Amino acid sequence: MTGPTGGTGATGAAGIFQQFQVSENTPNTTGSSAIPITAVAITLKTITITGVSAGNSVWLTGIVGWESTTGTTVIQLQIFRGATVIFSIKQHAAGNNTFEASSVDHVDQTPGTGSVTYSLAALTVVGSANAIGAITFTGALILT
Asked: Is the whole model's pTM more than 0.85, yes or no?
């Protein structure tokens, strides 16, 4: 037999990670996309973090599954805050129909205040490619 349940204690302080946001394919598997990546940046995923105060940071992560479609290919993944590129990284594929997964991981230490929109974009520097999935883009507000 179980005894009586005691009273509920006080609610503890909130953690430093808030406003977790995610944008991903459904299903989020290889072949779940067929998005051409060309020399012009294309937005793959977008998230908005709300309630940003002065001094806060935003932690951003993402992954893109892609396929080279014209032999040697170099893609660049970019993270935008609004219309400003705040992070970029390149990945190389050595042959046609080569499958790759490229990731991003960045902390925006100067996001501004209020609602802040971030986008994960891709473009080719050499060759051409398709974003084929999985594609995930996440963000979380870090309180200070």
From this structure: yes
